[in-house]
Specification:
CATH architecture: 2-Layer Sandwich
Order of helices and strands: EEEHEHHHEEEHHHEEHEH
Structural class: alpha+beta
Bound molecules: 4-diphosphocytidyl-2-C-methyl-D-erythritol, adenosine-5'-triphosphate
CATH class: Alpha Beta
Number of domains: 1
Length: 287
């Protein structure tokens, strides 16, 4: 039996998302609150000592292996290690909708960096892994660090936060939203005044908005209808640039009652918000 490890790759929510400016390189400066969900993909890493190849057991439909953030993360880590390493085969149990604002690809990249650092026994520190992660995507560092956080810059300046660990109904309206298209939309507001938060942010995130929500609702009636339906029952928001939306509930049973009554034809799930990533939780249990 070759050494093997199965690790969670959780989703994130942007409990709020403010666009506070635009950088000279065209990227938008954000202030956002990230919380993890106890729901996500699962990756299994199996070392193949007889072959140096880094490969996927099965491709993700619509994503070329070369572009897959899992392969890109594993290669970036191997390059940083700078020594011969055993090959690895990675299989994916994909549960998160792609391009849904739940950070699935970024989370897969982070689980790969953290998991292979462990399996290859590289002992790189969290700062170094987060730096490699930032080269793969702005949302990767928060998944590498594994703590809910208030994020600034493009998402890389992180202050740990402890929002309430509520339950969420997460719905995926039936549309695909391109992040670049939303960020380049002329109707997007880019001047929300910067806020300062108390260290640890224990406040009520639903006081704050997602600045992408107006544009996304205008372009995608499915999102508007979903938000209208969900907000009857409590605070509801878009995560990232969508398409997923979430409603917040104090208990699992309250969330499940609403989930059961969702309109037909809409997919999604019920999950708990967690401030410590299930990935890091699992690794703690293993060591
Ligand atoms: C909106 C968030 O989901 C918040 O968590 C993320 O910042 C999005 O991060 P991401 O999915 O890694 O985004 P990318 O795939 O890198 O971005 C796609 C495109 O959106 C635009 N973009 C993205 C992030 C950002 N802060 N400003 C931008 O202007 C850029 O044109 C970029 O080329
Ligand atoms: N392992 C992967 N899993 C999912 N998507 C991937 C992966 N590797 C590359 N991608 C590409 O990344 C794109 C964005 O996927 P992802 O699921 O991260 O979006 P998202 O949930 O909108 O993320 P964000 O909230 O960061 O915008 C996909 O459309 C796909 O082309």
């Amino acid at each position: 039996m070759h050494p093997s490890i199965t690790l969670p790759s959780p989703a994130k929510l942007n409990l709020f998302l403010h666009i506070v400016g635009k950088r000279p390189d065209g990227y938008h400066e954000l202030q956002t609150l990230f919380q993890f969900l106890d729901y996500g993909d699962e990756l299994t890493f199996t070392l193949t000592p007889d072959s140096p190849d880094i490969r996927l057991a099965q491709p993700i439909p619509g994503v070329a292996d070369e572009d897959n953030l899992i392969i890109r993360a594993a290669r970036a880590l191997a390059a940083r290690a700078g020594k011969p390493l055993p090959g690895v085969t990675i299989s994916i149990d994909k549960r998160l909708p792609m391009g849904g604002g739940l950070g699935g690809g970024s989370s897969n990249a982070a689980t790969t960096l953290v998991g292979l650092n462990w399996l290859w026994q590289l002992n790189l520190g969290e700062d170094e892994l987060a730096e490699i992660g930032l080269g793969l995507g702005a949302d990767v560092p928060v998944f590498v660090r594994g703590r809910a956080a208030f994020a600034e810059g493009v998402g890389e300046k992180l202050t740990p936060a402890e929002p309430p660990e509520d339950w969420f109904v997460v719905l995926k309206p039936d549309c695909d939203i391109n992040t670049g298209k939303i960020f380049s939309h002329e109707g997007l507001t880019r001047d929300t005044p910067k806020i300062t938060i108390r260290p640890a942010f224990e406040g009520d995130a639903s006081r704050y908005r997602n600045d992408c929500e107006d544009v996304v609702q205008k372009l995608y009636p499915e999102v508007r209808q979903g938000l209208e339906w969900l907000s009857q029952f409590g605070p509801a928001r878009l995560t990232g640039t969508g398409a997923c939306i979430f409603g917040r509930f104090p208990t699992e049973s309250a969330a499940r009652i609403i989930w059961e009554s969702k309109p037909s034809g809409i997919t999604g799930f019920v999950a708990k918000g967690v401030n410590y990533s299930p990935l890091h939780q699992k690794l703690t249990e293993l060591t």
